[in-house]
């Protein structure tokens, strides 16, 4: 019998600092794409379907993670299967988790 080869998860990281800290303990095979700005992140979300979104809160001078989440709420077809906070700020991570839960409910209704 052949080995069961897992297909890599398509992961997008939207973070102004290219960091692997939110992915360093993963054993799954990953296909990771980085976006360093809000605009880059939105363009990638529009172009492809993603298994996971790792989202930082502070993106640049004009946008924060909430802006990405707000955009997703208006573009339900682009919501990834999972949204994971990628920030050290506990309160901002909590905000991302709460909004992500609401977005996951919207996604399931598609």
Question: What is this entry, summarized?
Answer:
The protein is of the alpha/beta class.
What does this structure look like?
The mean pLDDT is 88. Helices cover 35% and strands 18% of the residues. The chain has one domain: Response regulator (Rossmann fold, 3-Layer(aba) Sandwich), CATH 3.40.50.2300. With 110 residues, it is of the alpha/beta class.
Query: Under CATH, the topology is which?
Result: Rossmann fold
Please name the fourth-level CATH homologous superfamily.
Answer: Response regulator
The pLDDT mean sits at 88
Helix percent reads 25-40%
Helices and strands in order, then pairings?
Elements: E1 9-14, E2 30-35, H1 38-47, E3 52-55, H2 65-74, E4 82-85, H3 90-108
Parallel strand pairs: 1-2, 1-3, 3-4
List keywords for this structure.
single chain, 110 residues, alpha/beta, Rossmann fold, four-stranded parallel β-sheet, 3 helices, 4 strands
């Amino acid at each position: 019998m052949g080995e069961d080869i897992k297909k890599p998860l398509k992961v997008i990281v939207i973070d102004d600092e290219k960091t692997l800290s939110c992915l360093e303990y993963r054993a799954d095979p990953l296909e990771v794409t980085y976006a360093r700005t809000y605009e880059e992140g939105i363009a990638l979300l529009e172009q492809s379907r993603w298994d996971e979104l790792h989202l930082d809160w502070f993106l640049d001078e004009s946008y924060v993670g909430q802006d990405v989440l707000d955009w997703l709420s208006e573009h339900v077809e682009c919501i990834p299967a999972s949204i994971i906070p990628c920030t050290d700020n506990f309160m901002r991570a909590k905000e991302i988790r709460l909004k992500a839960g609401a977005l996951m409910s919207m996604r399931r209704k598609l």
